[in-house]
Amino acid sequence: MKKYQIVRQKGRVWEDAQLIPMRVPVQALIDGVREDVESLAMEAGIIMMEMAMEGERSRLTDGPRRRGYRWGQQKGYVVMNGRKVPIEHGRVRDLKNREIALKTYERFQSGKMKETAMREMMRGVSSRAYGEGFEALMRGYGIRRSSISRHVVEATEEKLRALMERDLKLLDLTCVFIDGVHFAETLLVVAIGVDVKGNKHALGIWQGATENATVCKELVKDLIGRGLDAERKYLFILDGGKGLRSAIEEVFGERAEVQRCQEHKKRNVAAHLPERYQIEIRQRMNEAYATKDYEHAKSALESCVRDLRKINPSAARSLEEGLEETLTLHRLELPMALRVSLSTTNVIESGLFMIRHKCQRVMRWRDGDHVQRWTAAALLEAESKSWRKIKGYTLMDKLLSALGREDTKNIQRISEVSRIEKNRMSGNLEPVFMSPA
Q: What is the pLDDT of residues 411-429, one digit of tens each?
């Protein structure tokens, strides 16, 4: 039996048929493929596609209700695993000599080339090596560097648009991390939020020459325009830039609690000191920040300032500037478990490390849009695949209380989640019933 012949079922209405039953020549599948398993699956897939298209063609041209007649063969392609594979398909013309498109052929052409190219780029495969790797596997084409670059541009544009248009009303945010970083010879300001359950969310990226007040104000206004409630109280974790701090103060006023990054402060102070003093001063600052009590921590840092004035007045001024805001978590009396994640902007630093890893194969950055597109794509991939809850997330009710957020339902629910988590970690398997959300 030829492979396009169809098993006719008695009383079958061909025009309304959704499935095309076929006799599959198994021996032809086995004989027509190579020995390795991957090629076996792919070549078998091509044979099945050819048979499906021929089945639809027979349905259109055979039987008393035929709609047209056969019109030879035509070279074309189908998409398999993100690349084009050449294939021959039969043509059909209706009784008025007009072309009838095969729906199966159109469907086989609608593969996810863009998504596949984006995935491979995020794995570190360069557009130069993309085609070589896949052509070695199968007879694919349409995967040249220009084609892959075009698909990647389209995919990253969608990622950037999704990030910058994200509705922040859907995220019940409590903390916002903002930091400016130099990447690909440009400055990017990145914002990451943390919701009441401790989950991290990428909020946006902005590009500027410096972290000046104008850029930072536009950043904050954009967050508000997308749903960040300017009337609520948030904890902002910043790197210490004056422009960003000024923008936060102008928009949120006293509703903003600002925690200056302690790690940035230690680096800035150490940069003013001779190498022989750096280890000692950093150790003293670590001990001060590790102190639970606010007054004790402040006293230890002020003592460090006095000693620094004798060594290097510039280092003393660097530590003294914004000293109070490096102790905001101490003043709010948050648990030590929460301070681990909220005392620095390391949440952003770890995300940017992943971005640099994903983008290390890019040989030349063409423009600012190129940088933003790739950064957005890497951020969203890190969010979906790598980011975990912040440390101490079971104590988020303490943060809500410290911020004066009169959200009793959230506080009650977080407390119950915390109790369940503690029971799980302690091995207590007794059921804990949660109130409705």
A: 455 555 445 554 544 444 4
CA distance linking residue 105 with residue 90, whole number of Å: 10
Tokens linked to 214: 């104008």
How far, in Å, CA of 342 to CA of 393, rounded?
A: 11
Q: Which residue type occupies 231?
A: E
Q: Compute the 3-state secondary structure of the chain and give helix, strand, coil in percent, each to the nearest 5.
A: 55, 15, 30
Q: Report DSSP state, residue 253.
A: G
Tokens in use for 107? 């469907």
* DSSP letters spanning 10-21: TT--GGG-S---
Residue 265 CA to residue 315 CA, distance in Å, equals 10
One-letter amino acid at 239 equals D
pLDDT in tens, 324-379: 999 999 999 999 999 999 999 888 877 777 777 766 666 677 666 778 887 888 88
Compute the C-alpha angle 387/322/320, nearest 5°: 130
Q: How many residues are listed for the chain in this entry?
A: 437
CA 68 to mean position of chain CA atoms: 50
Mean of pLDDT over the chain: 75
DSSP string, 261-274: -HHHHHHHHHTTS-
- Looking at residues 49-58, what average pLDDT do you find? 80
Is the distance from CB of 304 to CB of 281 less than 8 angstroms? yes
Q: 152 or 244: whose pLDDT is higher? A: 244
Among 368, 367, 361, which Cα is nearest to 145's? 361
Separation between Cα atoms, residue 41 and residue 402, nearest integer Å: 59
Beta bridge partners of 73: 90
Q: Give first-to-last CA distance, the chain, whole Å.
A: 62
Q: Is the pLDDT of residue 154 over 50?
A: yes
Residue type, 211: E
Task: State the pLDDT at residue 407.
Answer: 58
Using a cut of 0.70, tell me whether the model's pTM lies above it: no
How are beta strands 256-260 and 234-238 bridged, if at all? parallel
3-state secondary structure of 183: strand
